[in-house]
Amino acid sequence: MTRKQVAFIVGVNALISTLITLLLVLVILPAVGAPEVAPVTGPTQVVSGEPTSSGPSGGPTATPVVHVVQAGDTISGLALQYDVSAEDIIAANQLQNPNFLQVGMRLEIPVGGVAESTATLTPVPTATETPLPVIPPSAERTATAAAAAGATATDLPTPVPATGELKIEITEIIGVGQEDQEQVVISNLGTRLADMQGWTLRDSDGNEFVFPNFRLWQNGSATVHTRVGQDGNPPGHFYWMKSEPVWSDGEEATLANAAGETIFTYTVGP
């Protein structure tokens, strides 16, 4: 084979390779199409197993914790449990009377603070309470009477007052001498919230009841039963867990604060 023939074959091969390349670029690739690129999305935050959209500042939108009220729960206790202020819990749920919580009630706990928008209270079905086998305290001093009267938001200080008169009194002791009926009614007649944790109620024989973590609102009341029961059921009621009567006519009941200072004394009798 001559050199001219070799050169001719090489040139033909080069031409064929060029044509094949042009065919791939102009016909085959456009027909197949370019691979799609998935769009890049912003980050999401998963709270309790469900994603929430990012907020306008780039951070996750706040998601409140929902707490179902159990027997013995109080606003002050929930504030300590979730490390939020009692005022924020009250505002987030638009509570009319924070001193009375119904078992089964769903509360939004605003971890991180209350949103600027007005909180909406989720309707909660009215809980059915089993009547206690006791004589109910008289007048409007009792928790049941206050709840039945339908206390409004204007009846309670908002926000919680840091100053004012602290006036906590024993307003009534009933069922004296009957263990299953004895009740001591303690009322807040002052103008400020009373933190009752560590306060004591004593009789003349040295029997002493110590209040748990509990706050008593202005115009609110708490009832201490002598008998066995579960604190907070119903709300605002506490139990001395005694199997025999504590009170007798003529003896003195003493209410003292957490520092041991006597706040009020009450003489038992008709």
The major sheet is characterized as: 4 strands, mixed
Number of helices: 4
**Major beta sheet, strand line-up:** 5-6-11-12
Global outline: rod-shaped
CATH class assignment of the domain at 139-267? Mainly Beta
Distance between the termini: 139 Å
CATH topology of the domain at 139-267: Immunoglobulin-like
Number of strands: 14
Structural class: alpha+beta
Low-confidence stretches: 34-61, 117-160
Instruction: Kindly state the percentage of residues in helix.
Output: 10-25%
Return the CATH architecture of the domain at 139-267. Answer: Sandwich
CATH superfamily of the domain at 139-267: Lamin Tail domain
Using the CA coordinates, give the radius of gyration. 36 Å
Write structural notes for this entry.
The protein is built from four helices and 14 strands. It has helices at residues 3-32, 75-82, 86-93, 143-148, and strands spanning 45-47, 50-52, 65-68, 106-109, 168-174, 183-188, 194-195, 200-202, 208-210, 215-216, 221-225, 237-239, 252-256, 262-267. Mean pLDDT is 73; it is low at 34-61 and 117-160.
The gist of it:
The chain is of the alpha+beta class and 270 residues long. It has helices at 3-32, 75-82, 86-93, 143-148, and strands spanning 45-47, 50-52, 65-68, 106-109, 168-174, 183-188, 194-195, 200-202, 208-210, 215-216, 221-225, 237-239, 252-256, 262-267. The chain has four helices and 14 strands.
